[in-house]
Every structure is written in C-alpha cells, then in structure tokens.
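Sequence in, structure out.
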Amino acid sequence: QIKQLKIPLTGFRPIQEAISCAGGVKREVLSEQLQLKSNPHVFLCGEMLDWDAPTGGYLLTACFATGRAAAEGVQQYLV
C-alpha cells in the first residue's frame, strides 16, 4: 500500500525548510538494533531519533529505513 500512496504536490519549499527537526534520543543510548540500552523492551525509529540534517525529500526514506531496522531488532529480540 505504501508504494501506491498518493501525495498531491502543490509546489516546492525552500531548501532552508528541508531540515529534519533536531532533538530526540541520542545514538549512544541505543543498541545497533535501535533498542534502548536502559529498557530493552523499547525500540525507536524515525523522528524519535536525534538527527539534524538537510534531508530534502529523504526524510521519509530515513524514517522507513530506521523503522525497518527497529522492526528487525524487535524480531530478533522476540526469537
């Protein structure tokens, strides 16, 4: 379904606005599977993570990629 998601475009915004928000959970408190070291029942992804970068149109890709990584971590955790 995600591959067929229709998002109508009405124009472009300036590159200065194409920044993911700063803040979020720091990388050093997470495992390689995006699992909180302090609470192994919690996995994080997307805008929950601390990143601050000019992402342009790649923010959704980064959110989907970290979501997949976290989901794979959950799967490993449950096995």
